[in-house]
Specification:
globular, TIM Barrel, six-stranded parallel sheet, 13 strands, single chain, three-stranded parallel sheet, alpha/beta
Length: 331
């Protein structure tokens, strides 16, 4: 059937097109649409109903991207010989087994209410504030960062098998995440860390995470580094190892312009002669708008634009040039 378009209808379409083009021109750094801003969560418990309902809410929003569930720093319950975490809200211990079970409930809630198409990377999040040098006498301190990293890798493998291999597999991928911050671990290294890189405990943790069992191949899942990169603590090599290791993906905190510059500095070092022309890709930006003072911290889309602007300081001629950033999360 042939359609007869009125002049008013055609003018309306043209006006909308002009407004759309103007909006694109207002963002000179990228002509790509912003990624979906996902909501990541600092968890206070492993209650199945709580995590299921969180998954439902994410599904109802058709969330797409990376969702980090942060359960706090690695910890060890000596009374049960069990590795897990201490949450950042109530400082309570949660075993890795209970965390994985709760995250499976999140996956079920998301899958049940998201429709056919949205996909998320569901990441078990922790941090590196467990470092023995900066946490002497802390509650449930891990006796071995190496073992803690291996246990996390093993349990993320269980999570991945449960969600990827089940009915959720086409919409949920199990992964890991770590809020890695240099100022939490300035410990001097042993020979395993090359003898020069501060951040030894973080190094031991990540090395075992990447290969939890020497007889097995490396895990086939991502670890998103959603930490900071303040200078003065780690060498560039150690910073690179944390953000761009075998399975690490840079998903750094960009709450302010200075934090974006910290990541640009590492990226520039890596891809130029100083770092040996190594690969570097900023996969995502982590924002914390709800917890920040308005007017001080960037919004999620401002974090994206600021990071991309730092990377592309000289347009497409910038050695750190990226056409876009894949993900944004707000925690």
């Amino acid at each position: 059937m042939r359609h007869h378009w009125s002049r008013l209808y055609i003018k309306t379409l043209i006006a909308l097109l002009i407004v759309s083009l103007g909006t694109l021109r207002a963002r000179p750094i990228s002509v790509f649409a912003y990624p979906v801003v996902t909501t990541s969560i600092y968890e206070s418990d492993t209650n199945s109903s709580t995590l299921y309902n969180q998954g439902v809410q994410a599904g109802q929003k058709s969330t797409t991207g990376v969702v980090i569930l942060d359960f706090g720093r690695p910890a060890y319950d000596a009374s049960t010989n069990t590795y897990g975490t201490l949450d950042t809200i109530n400082n309570n211990f949660h075993s890795f087994d209970s965390i994985v079970s709760a995250m499976e409930q999140f996956a079920q809630g998301f899958w049940s209410y998201s429709g056919c198409c949205p996909h998320i990377y569901l990441a078990l999040g922790t941090n590196n504030s467990f470092a023995s040098g900066g946490c002497s006498g802390c509650k449930d301190q891990v006796p071995s960062e190496t073992n803690a990293g291996g246990k996390l890798a093993d349990k993320v493998s269980v999570l991945k098998g449960a969600v990827d291999g089940g009915v959720y597999g086409n919409q949920v991928t199990g992964t890991a995440a770590d809020d890695l911050e240099p100022n939490w671990d300035s410990t001097a290294p042993g020979a395993e860390a090359g003898g020069t890189n501060n951040g030894a405990y973080t190094y031991y943790f990540l090395s075992q995470f990447n290969q939890s069992d020497p007889s097995e191949p490396h895990p086939s899942f991502q670890l998103w580094d959603y930490g900071s990169n303040e200078s003065g603590y780690w060498t560039n090599d150690m910073e690179y190892y944390a953000a761009q290791g075998t399975f690490e993906y840079d998903f750094g905190q960009v709450y302010t312009s200075n934090m974006a510059q910290d990541w640009e500095n590492l990226d520039y070092w890596a891809v130029t002669a100083g770092g040996g022309y190594r690969y570097f890709w900023v996969s995502g930006v982590t924002n914390q708008a709800p917890a920040c003072v308005q007017g001080v911290c960037l919004t999620p889309t401002q974090s994206y634009d600021t990071m991309l602007s730092k990377l592309n300081y000289n347009g497409t001629s910038s050695p750190t040039y990226q056409s876009h950033i894949d993900y944004i999360t707000d925690i």
